[in-house]
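Known limitations

Files may contain more than one protein. Parsers should not assume a single record per file. Below, a two-record file is shown to illustrate correct handling: read the sequence, read the token line, then continue until end of file.
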Amino acid sequence: MANTIYILFGIQPPVKVVGDYVLLPQLFPRLEEADLAGLSYSVSVEEIKNSVFAIGRLKTLGPDGFPTLFYQDYWGVCSDDIISFVQDCSHTATLPDHLNEPLIALVPKVERPMSMNQLRPISLCNTLYKVVSKILVARLRPCMTKLVSPSQVSFVPGRQITDNIIVAQEVLHKFKSAKGKKGFIAWKIDLSKAYDRMQWSLIREVLWEVGIKGSILELLMQ
């Protein structure tokens, strides 16, 4: 809540600099040691295999041109190379330069798009990049309930973003039924393309503050 107030009213929150990181104290929860331990252990063979077989067989190809079904159908042949590659990425906290070079495709939202906001950009990623990403997501998922506020309805299994519609309807209904009373205000904030406005430096600082450090932070930033 404090973070929202700072942003909405343009107030500069108190900051603390630790090394190369700028911390925003008391604005983000901190993970417990048990949670952090679950993020930092070595990547297992089972994790890698589960990640490979969790991807749709005919997901849209990335620049490498290899669909997931190739790795799944020939797992017995290429498994050693895939396992060695993913474990090396985890150990060094780096990705090869070419791995994170997706193709950007523009999917029209309407029959005859006339402007860029009528096109939806999607990233066509390499399959091995998806494998590494899925492993990171699987490790972070159990921590999301501690990082995401109970009032937010996204990113946590069991919550639906459409719940916001019900909340908004209830609030406006309250406004209409409270006739003769003053002091109600509804404020609609445009959050379209919010991800495009995020800065990587802020994401890094937030992750560092909640306790995610070391190789997993570096790999996430990669």
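...continuing to the second record:
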Amino acid sequence: MSGSIRYVPAVLAGKAARFATRLRGGGSAFPGYLANRLAPTLLSSLAAQFPYGVVFVLGSNGKTTTTHMVSEVLRAHGLRVFTNPTGANLPQGVTSALLAEATPTGKVRADVAVLEVDEGYAAELADILSPRVIVALNVQVDQLYRFYETERVADMMLDAATRASVRVVVNRDDPYLSKIDASALRSPVSFFGASTEVVAASAHGLNNAADTRSGMVGALDHPAESEVTAVAGRNVEITLDGNPIAVTLPARGLHYAVDAAAAISTARHVLGDAFRADAAAAGFSKMRPAYGRGELVPLRRDRSGEQVEFVMFKNGPSLQLNVDALDGAPERILMAIDEGTPDVSWLYDVDLSAFDHVDVVTGEKAHQIATRLAYAGIPIGVVEPDMEKAVELMRAFAPTSAGRQIWFVNYELMMIGRRILGYGDQEVARR
């Protein structure tokens, strides 16, 4: 069904709530929650609207970036894409994204839906939205206060994968996901990954969680349909069935290169015979960083001079991979974590030796960060828990030689930092 008059009250109420919450500076989930309560079948009406179906992107890290990459590659092929660009990946967040695009009857004018989905809700949402393609990126140590064990996260992703009707795209280099039982799936499996040489060149590898359950150490060596074979900054080579594709990443790092390999494989199975390597490369060449992931934002409101590069992390593996991607010690650094990341004990597992100092530490966890940095012998300039005051401190510094500060931030402080610098939730900064 392509929309219905019965959804009008719920959609209009959700749109009104979305307008009101955006005036207050946030609130991406409540409008979707309200619409779902008023019309419980609204979300399920999405699945039948898209000629190319629904794509799910799952993983401990990289969901937002990979969703963005898949979306832009599909747009480069001429498709209209519906997605949840700010990382709102719970059912109410997906519905909120729908409200931004939907007509009053719940109709979304798009050819395909590419959605990042929280692992805890993936199977439930798959039963509602009937995804054609599901991509599983990685299982990494994350949110143990919520999921308790990495094995549970793997099981959630593998369970959701059984719902894909056309293709499951899986990380060959992940110790858990590589052991997927293809006989339990409705659709074939394709694998992506990075070459042994590329992974070995990274200081700490890919940081995927060790498999403590199966008794088989490491990942299974499946042939990779899409594989990262060379990395030089933002320029990488990805082979698809052995044919090289030159790709320019929107942000630097091996993890982004592996996400790109996943995106290329996923787009191929969405498009079928219509997939073109040149169009995929063109999509990457024009691609801006995903929301808060390597974005460059002017430091000052007049948008002159210094820029801020946002480096968003949510757990130890994502922080480590982003630190490993640095090209030397940053000249000016802010580091910030707030209560959106309740347990920061994983900071002690991260090798921060690439930092020779940190200028400002901020957020509600500022003193915990400072303690970790002190144990590592890394000099700290100022500990200022208030983000607005911390931004003013960063603005007071003399310009850097590269014209760029680097801010390592968790999700909530990334959003707050962007707003302080003049960018709202949906506004995307340009390079």
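Parsers that stop after the first record will miss the second one. For reference, the second record is described as follows. The radius of gyration is 21 Å.
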